[in-house]
Model the fold of this input.
Amino acid sequence: MAEILEKLAYCIEFGKINKESPYPPDMKGQDGADEYARQALESGIPAGRILEEGLVPGMARVGVKFRENKIFVPQVLMSAKAMSTAMVHLKPFFSSGEVERKGQFIIGTVAGDLHDIGKNLVSMMVEGSGWEVIDLGVDVPSAKFMETLNNHPNAIVGLSAMLTTTMVNMNSIVRDIRAKHPKQRIIIGGAPLNDNFRKEIGADFYSPDPQGAIEYINALVS
Amino acid sequence: MPDLLKALKPGKVLVSDGAWGTYLHEKGLQPGECPESWNLSHPEEVYDIAISYVRAGADMIETNSFGGSRFKLRHYELEDKVWEINREAAAISRKAAGDNRFVLGSIGPTGKLLMAGDVTEEELYDCFREQASALQSGGADAIIIETMSDLEEARIAVTAAKKHTSCTVICTMTFERMADGTFRTMMGVMPSEMPEVLIRAGADILGSNCGNGTRDMIPILKELRSVNPDIPLIIQGNAGTPKYLEGKTVFMESPGETASFVPELIRNKVNIIGGCCGTTPEHIRLIRREVNKF
Done:
């Protein structure tokens, strides 16, 4: 792998956004994800390779460490910030169609629920692993998921809930989606959930952490 | 008005109340409906929850204001009613508590991440100042800043409550058990980190709520006590972990089970015991019965 892409992956892994950023303290004054992404493009490395060999591996290491409780939300957020800063340089190549992403992922916190910290983490990390993410926000009703699916029929759907009083809404959302799209892949996540719940409502996959979700959807398209 | 800290001085263990959110839903709060709005639209139902905890033997009751911050109310377009909603929350609980019991004005997290730049320190401070002041105006004796994950946000809330009210200030955080058996909030904060920062900010009482059943609160209590032997501590556990049965989520820990952990909590020098998600007046009644034995 080109050295510059390794450096980029390292900046993603440790949340080094740019030269100016004082975090992490032991990388102060060094180039960050912003600079390395730009330099990689300038040196002629294709955007697709920068994504696959620079961003994705960095984010994967973050996902694994988070799952293993070695890092926490603050560290993941910094890595996600580094990743989206680098992505700014790559975005023109996505819109032009030059770089293909793995697929589309529709995500939202279900109706009645306003919690989004976990959902936002998953959003950012899924994007960092090469997917196009359509984030519907919070308090999202069935109708909105359905409408978005109609516009993006090949997308995978992710549902998030934080409360025991709103996770039950996943039942009706899954039912509504399946009525129209019986083979639709639906994954779920959130603090009160477990795999038994997933089975009860007929969703395809439950993960207690973002990395599990990423590994599942990556496997679907590989 | 009674002084909560004075009541705790003689080494007494007091009993707090149980869940409000799950109780409101049982009373017909719809998914997507703002729980705090019921202080204005269904005050008699909110009063009923408060009085049922008083009757169950609680020494103190909270207020229906957990999500009453400006940021949370904005989603329901109730931002302009922040003061009224919080004042009424405290007034309803005050009426139920009478003169002899304490009212704890509940303040929950804003859901905004300071470190992600969702919000500034000033905005958070103003938001907490507003809520705490409104709760005091309705008759709260204490402000309980609860279910916190971020130490900075908690510090700002404690500072605002201390500076702008004369209420006793309580702060509790929510921990998860990690793979290695230690406890941390989702932001990585350990129980042992709480006392230094929060006491300096003005907290009078610390503790933990939510995230765990009462049994798993015991190691959290021990960790807090090991770092500070003197500060009053409050523990409010969930009624175990929720299971999805026949279209409903059910909390599995019975009142008797919850109460069975009371002796161990008292042995580890807890000062106030209550409950969080899934707990009911019956849970509080049995906790009261156990506490009375000491």
Residues 73-95 of chain A form the longest helix (23 residues). Chain A touches chain B at residues 68-69, 71-75, 77, 81, 111-112, 114-117, 138-139, 163-169, 171, 192, 196-197, 200 (CB under 8 Å).
